[in-house]
Amino acid sequence: MRVSNLALLAALAVALFGAEPASAGQENWFIFGKRSVETDRAPAPRVNRRNVRAPSYRERQVRSRQALPARQSTSVRKPRRLATTPTTSSVYQPARQYQRQTVAYYGDQAPGTVVIDTRERFLYHVHADGTATRYGVGVGRAGFEWRGTATIERKAEWPDWRPPKEMIAREKAKGRTLPEMMPGGPNNPLGARALYLYQGKRDTLYRIHGTNNPRSIGLAMSSGCIRMMNDDVTHLYNSVSMGTKVVVM
Predict the structure, then answer these.
(1) Entry pTM
(2) In which band, very low, low, confident or very high, does the pLDDT at 28 lie, cut at 50, 70 and 90?
(3) What is the average pLDDT score of the chain?
(4) Looking at 51-184, which runs of residues are DSSP E strands?
(5) Which residues are registered as beta bridge partners of 140?
(6) What is the Cα–Cα distance from 166 to 103, expressed in whole angstroms?
(7) Contact partners, residue 82, CB within 8 Å, separation at least 6
(8) Phi, psi of 122 (to 5 degrees)
(9) Domains of the chain: which residue ranges?
(10) 139 bridge partner residues
(11) Any idea which residues carry the catalytic annotation?
(12) Which residue has the higher pLDDT, 59 or 241?
């Protein structure tokens, strides 16, 4: 009776689940009371949903960027500017009107003449085409002005400075000691070049020279000499020759 009941249950399982009843050598069995079935196939892995976490917003952003192809930059890199050493003229520039320039010349002096306008603080080098190169200059302070005509009888590059005895005594009375001679160089008051002015064979002791104080251009500060920017006096030095006439007005 018990065997017939088992056969009946097996037949019922086939009808309900389409499964073959287990043979004697198989270990397949069915427990219908608990609605569980065990077969010879491996059971599917069970997922513990408690340990599964949805990706955060930041993780989604990272994944989306990783999935995108690399973008090529379309910006143009600017070339690096190389550092440059400033020239003498770029360290300080006087006011625009005192910067070297070519101007029309309406005076009566012959081409090649150097004309110095002490009131306006300009030096003109006259050309044959009706123009002149105009330079800004510094001139003698009150009591040290002079006017007249002279010629250039000596030229020197980075000249030594030998202050006159009168200047040494004058400065000593003010509490300042001047050297008898200062070698040429950037700190020398005569600057880069000097043109020595003579009247006949007599040295006037006046010079057209550069300066170690470019801010004095356009001012009346000297002891009678004509000061120029170092670049300008070098330009004039290269343009004039010995015996050039100089007119100081």
Answers:
(1) 0.62
(2) very low
(3) 80
(4) 101-104, 114-117, 122-126, 131-136, 139-140, 148-157
(5) 222
(6) 38
(7) none
(8) -125, 145
(9) 1-40, 92-248
(10) 220
(11) 209, 225
(12) 241
